[in-house]
Amino acid sequence: MRLSHPIFHRPLDPRIELEAIDTPDGYRIYPEGKHLPDQLLAWTVHEGKFPKVDVGMVSDPVGFEDTPDTEWISSGVNSKGPRSVALGRQANFFLWGFYGAPDRMTPSAKRVFLNTIVYMKQFDGRTPLARKVSQGRERIRQMLGFLPQLLERADESTRQYLERAFPKKALEHCGLDADKLDAYLSERIEYVTHTDGQFVIDADLEQLAVPNRSPAFFAAVLARLVVDPKDPVALRLIERYVPVEYTGAEAFARWYAENQHRLYFSDTAGYRWFLRPTDRDQEPVEESGR
Amino acid sequence: MKRHVVTVSLLALWLSSPAVAQETAQEEPSSPAADSPVIESSRLGEAADWKILYAGSPGGSREKAFVEFLGEHFKVVEAMNLEKLTVETAAPYDVIVADWTSQYGNDGYGKGVNDGGALNMPKVKLPPSFSKPVIAIDYVAAKITRRTKLDWL
Lengths: 290, 153
Fold this sequence. Notes:
The structure holds 2 protein chains of 2 kinds. By secondary structure, chain A is α+β, with helices and mostly antiparallel strands.
């Protein structure tokens, strides 16, 4: 819960009161849930529980903030993990994941809801920067956490599911041994991409030992192009990851120098670099509704 | 994807981050007058003059609850069938609240799930050009948007 977020502060003071709850047991199999304390501080958004009140909805936290138009604001007690998104924004859309209507909301939740209306007005005219077309690579770490439980099922459909959940190269080396997979993939997580619905370890990235989502990617590619403007590895990487057509080493270097401040990498939008639009301010305006 | 039957009614904050837990705003004096909708509307400033659209399932208890609540704080609040929400119908409004029904037979709505029935989902998909601010309640976020990160986990 990002308590510092503007919706928890203005224009109305929500007077949020936190209470201790037992950490849901289901959180422990998630990487971010292993070391949670026995209790968490929580804020009641609405009265009533399932089945008298519907369950709400959470969104996938993996890769949620890998585009500049998103904000992870809060999770909520749920069955999908401690960081699942219950309150979050992408561009002009805000997820209020809780079912309770105002007749069930707590007074503080009503104020936060009003604050959210005021906060969202500034995003009039925005649209999402990219569609979500792939899973973020941190899904691999989650699957490693689930692996022991899933292997207990020992049925064919689960095995097939697991074999699609990890890169083939990792499975060739490690089988479905959780410890071996963890060690193998931890060393190679920065070389992961996603193709045809499957995680893949990019052989070119692994050869260069260069992460695809770091500025070091461009440094490595440019260095190779200085030596050979037709370097096949560099050209493959540009085509695979970069939003510009390669027309020569000098032009590419010039393009990168002019645009590096706008570049961001997104797993969920397709494991590529993207250019942030110049007419959008990715940082929300703090003053709203006053 | 199956929905998991767990209430999402609380927000969780790590106990191991006491600094965050302490980042609450200063308490204001509490009194019935201070809490009244009229007082809180004045604190919304010019936002109180905005036009708010509740786009939901017409005539149900949720429409009533949202419209009544919003009407206490904003000068103009109108209701519309979510299935009629388009770029054109949204144009006159400042912010839209998008909502639908219970899926479990609560609040006067029919059961859409867990009783052999299909989910009672709104038939609406906003185009990529839709750019009005929308606060989407519960699963509506996943239904009205096209492959955004506000998906159904």
